[in-house]
Write a structure and sequence with these properties.
about 65% helix
Length: about 55
């Protein structure tokens, strides 16, 4: 029988947990969750981004 390596098992457990957390969310709710979590990381680590806007 194939024994899954520990790192792969951990990745699959994380993927399954994320699926369970998000399976009932609409696309808009999922996007809002991603934006909220990203903003929390930006604030936590004091990240600064340079944004280039290209206008055609």
């Amino acid at each position: 029988m194939y024994k899954e390596p520990k790192p792969m098992r951990e990745i699959h457990e994380i993927q399954e947990r994320l699926y369970e957390e998000e399976k009932d969310l609409s696309a808009k709710e999922r996007i809002a969750k991603i934006h909220k979590e990203a903003q929390e990381l930006i604030n936590k680590y004091g990240l600064k981004f340079r944004i280039k806007m290209y206008v055609s």
